[in-house]
Amino acid sequence: MFTQAIEKILADACTPAVVRAVEQGQSPAALWQALEDSGFLELLSTEEDGGAGLALADVYPILLAFGRYALPVPAAQSIAARALLQGSGVRAPAGMLTLAGSARREADGSLCAAQVSFGLLAQFALVNLDGDLLLLDCAQAQREPAGGHGTLFATLRWPAAAVPAAIASNGEALRSFSAAIQAAAMAGAMEWLFGKTLEYCNDRVQFGKAIGKFQTVQHQLSVMAEQVAAAGVAAALAFCGSQPVPALLPAAIGKARTAMAVPLVAATAHALHGAIGVTEELDLQLYTRRLHEWRLAEGSEHYWNRIVGEALLASAPLGASEFVRTVTQSA
């Protein structure tokens, strides 16, 4: 029910034209208002706080849809922020709220958060600083674009006077949640990418038949489909469990596996689209650019694979298969 409702809103309010307009600096206020008015930002909030009180698994299809539509506002981050703030005594402020999984304090007391998702747009940021949770006003931060063409990522720097006291000590949970969100976004975007690539290969005719009928193209599509399916399973794992926040290991597996699929999936999509694949007019680049940014957000697959590897070594004498079963069963 919730997924169908959000799909309808996104189909109407988050068209490729809207995504391009936001990238070019136009205000996303109408899109954000549509999401805020629908109540979807409160999906993980408790019923006592006016939310839906959904489980993580119920929210996952919605986060997947955000990726399929290349949503250019931090709706997923705002949903997660409300879950992270539960029990802190602090309510999420109105407006676009994003997550910064790691920040550092400079020698002069200022705070720097690098490559923050939607850092160019967000009005507030929930930040992990060495395990502490801070809520900061982005209007007081210096913003520097931290990506390529059309990026909405930014490095944010707050002066010492604008850095408040910590409001909770679950900062590391914020990073796990942020990584899981990126995994869901990548899985959704890759679903869209595969569907459009398959559609193009069935429509594009060369030498008298659709290129999708050629064995070499079918082979590339099958490998692409395998990667997309594996990424979806891994991302879904991050949102299993009864807790309101993803656990570290499932989130690490989800982020690592989806990130690993990005180079092959994006490259195959561009290759099979041929010369039109590199054009700005084709919607393909709206997704492949984001996929590469999401792959690096909160750490690439190398960072998260190391966390999984260290946990595997610490679980001795369990073998790899027993370790995987333990993680999936606990999730």
TrEMBL record:
Its cofactor is FAD. Residues 1-78 form the Acyl-CoA dehydrogenase/oxidase N-terminal domain. It comes from the Bacteria. The keyword Ribosomal protein does not apply. Gene3D superfamilies: Acyl-CoA dehydrogenase/oxidase, N-terminal domain (1.10.540.10), Butyryl-CoA Dehydrogenase, subunit A, domain 3 (1.20.140.10). The keyword Flavoprotein applies. GO terms for molecular function: acyl-CoA dehydrogenase activity; flavin adenine dinucleotide binding. Keywords: FAD, Flavoprotein, Oxidoreductase. InterPro entries: AcylCo_DH-like_C, AcylCo_DH/oxidase_C, AcylCoA_DH/ox_N, AcylCoA_DH/ox_N_sf, AcylCoA_DH/oxidase_NM_dom_sf. Residues 182-312 form the Acyl-CoA dehydrogenase/oxidase C-terminal domain. Coiled coil: none annotated. Belongs to the acyl-CoA dehydrogenase family. This is Acyl-CoA dehydrogenase. The lineage of its organism: Bacteria, Pseudomonadati, Pseudomonadota, Gammaproteobacteria, Pseudomonadales.
